[in-house]
Design brief:
Length: 213
């Protein structure tokens, strides 16, 4: 159900370009927040991280590490003009969703493998997610004036959007954790993350191959 919305979210709309053309730095904050709020692959990964954590302190710590990771690559790659095929980047982001759902379902343990350090993986995937955000920002015509300020403003918007999106996610999961049905909800939701990750990965590879031809 979310797949069409995910694909739409990754487009560069003319309305957003008009907003950036006619607004100042605040318009970049707005578009950045809007992009994160509709960036379902980013939010699915964060939901998977929150599922694994049980204390507010840990949630803040892991979300902060993820934020640092994607801020570094979003700002750095955009400012330096580092680009990559957006479908390949998004395919790796899809794998991050698959990875988190698989880990939450004790996939590594069932295979007899020690799972990698979660904090490190969140940082690594944060860097990759930031690169995906950079490809989106570079799709806009930003002009030459206040270039770095525009990038930082977009990043601020992304952070605000992330906070707004995480509030209901965290509240839902923490409140449901108190109910007897939580384990069933946990298993179903993380199974969905695995399925969504596979579907998004397949779609992005298909789009990459189609574009190559």
């Amino acid at each position: 159900m979310l797949l069409p919305l995910t694909l739409y979210a990754h487009g560069v709309s003319e309305s957003d370009q008009d907003i950036l053309n006619n607004g100042g730095l605040l318009s970049y904050i707005y578009v950045g927040a809007k992009h994160m709020l509709t960036g379902y692959d980013h939010l699915l990964f964060l939901a998977g991280v929150v599922f694994y954590l049980s204390t507010f302190k840990d949630i803040v710590k892991f979300v902060t590490v993820f934020t640092i990771g994607h801020s570094v690559t979003l700002i750095g790659a955009t400012y330096l003009g580092i680009t990559a095929n957006e479908h390949l980047v998004d395919a790796v982001i899809a794998l991050s969703v698959l990875y988190k759902g698989f880990e939450n379902l004790n996939g590594f343990k069932k295979l007899g493998i020690v799972s990698p350090n979660l904090l490190f993986m969140v940082l690594l995937f944060g860097l990759i997610h930031g690169f995906g955000l950079a490809t989106r920002l570079q799709s806009f015509d930003m002009g030459d004036d206040l270039f770095l300020a525009k990038i930082i403003s977009f990043n601020v918007g992304v952070e605000l959007g992330q906070i707004l999106a995480l509030i209901p996610i965290v509240l839902l999961i923490t409140q449901w954790r108190k109910r007897k049905s939580f384990q069933a909800f946990y298993k179903a939701a993380n199974t969905y993350l695995v399925i969504a990750g596979i579907a998004l990965f397949a779609y992005q590879l298909h789009e990459y191959i189609r574009g190559a031809h």
